[in-house]
Design a protein that fits this description.
Blueprint: H1 8-42, E1 56-65, E2 68-77, E3 80-90, E4 92-93, E5 96-97, E6 101-102, H2 111-128, H3 139-161, H4 168-173, E7 180-181, E8 188-195, E9 198-208, E10 231-234, E11 237-250, H5 252-282
Helix pairs in contact: 1-2, 1-5, 2-3, 3-5
Organism: Nothoprocta perdicaria
InterPro entries: RAVE2/Rogdi
Protein name: Protein rogdi homolog
């Protein structure tokens, strides 16, 4: 009702404020978003070959889980881990310690990190994909842009906060199993994933189910973490998980990235709210 009773002078003031919002504040917010997301993107940057200074190696000790001791070395540019080059896995087996490492000729990358990086870069592209002197003419144009940017940021955040559910055959047939030297024995499966700001590694010890014991065979479905007793079939052989070892380590730059995503989403929403205030005035029609 207050908007309907506004005088012509008040309307002129609102129109000037809205014009200033489109011409000045929107661009200031877009610039702020670009700066924040460029920082976020750097957290996912791959090491550049031939860059100044030697590539730093960061070591993450993924704690211990009972008798399972695991550790890892990652390729890092500054503080920005992007891929995994070496991993050492030691666990008792017949009173012996097994040692595995990534093959020298391979570099395995977490798909979650690759996807999150791609979504961040797409958000940056959306923010910068216009002439430097471009002027927004309508609030709906700004809302459409904010929705598109927020969609990419939400997808980036979700890739880090929501690990994929995999079946045990999917883990067994995944590329990770072929990355080790010496090769993993058939009774061990490993899986990496990101959960929020943590790098998680799960090691599954298996035992073969004999034909006489498979009458109650019930294959397990997809899960982030499978429990002992889970059964599956792979390569014409049926297995049961006997032991599960899960270890994790906080990766500081992942926490930075999540903070950047949250701040950016808040800025987008705040700008949308300001646009909506004016839109509610322009769309108001008295009875």
């Amino acid at each position: 009702m207050a908007a309907a009773m506004a005088s012509a002078a008040e309307r002129a003031v609102l129109e000037e404020e809205f014009k200033w919002l489109l011409q000045e504040e929107v661009h200031a917010v877009l610039k702020q978003l670009q700066d924040i997301l460029k920082e976020a993107s750097q957290r996912f940057a791959l090491p550049v070959s031939g860059s100044e200074g030697a590539i730093k190696q960061e070591n993450f000790v993924l704690s211990t889980s009972g008798s399972c001791v695991l550790g890892m070395k990652t390729t890092s540019s500054h503080m920005f881990v992007s891929s995994f080059k070496d991993i050492n896995l030691k666990m008792p087996r017949n009173n012996q310690l097994l040692h595995f490492a990534f093959r020298e000729d391979k570099q395995w990358k977490l798909q979650q990190i690759q996807d999150a990086r791609n979504h961040v870069n797409q958000a940056i592209y959306l923010l910068m994909n216009r002439d430097v002197n471009y002027q927004f003419r309508t609030g709906s144009e700004v809302l459409k842009l904010m929705d598109a940017v927020m969609l990419q940021l939400t997808r980036a955040r979700n890739r880090l906060t929501t690990p994929a559910t995999l079946t045990l055959p999917e883990i067994a047939s995944g590329g990770l199993t072929k990355m080790f030297t010496p090769a993993l024995p058939p009774d061990i499966l490993v899986n990496f994933y990101i959960n929020l700001n943590k790098l998680c590694l799960t090691v599954y010890q298996l035992h073969v189910l004999q034909p006489s014991t498979t009458k109650n065979f019930k294959p397990a479905g997809g899960s982030v973490l499978h429990n002992p007793g889970a059964m599956f079939e792979f390569g014409n052989q049926r297995y049961e998980v006997s032991h599960v070892h899960k270890v994790e380590s906080v990766v500081p730059w992942l926490n930075d990235a999540l903070v950047f995503f949250t701040v950016s989403l808040q800025l987008c929403q705040q700008l949308k709210d300001k646009i909506s205030v004016f839109s509610s005035y322009w769309n108001y029609r008295p009875y």
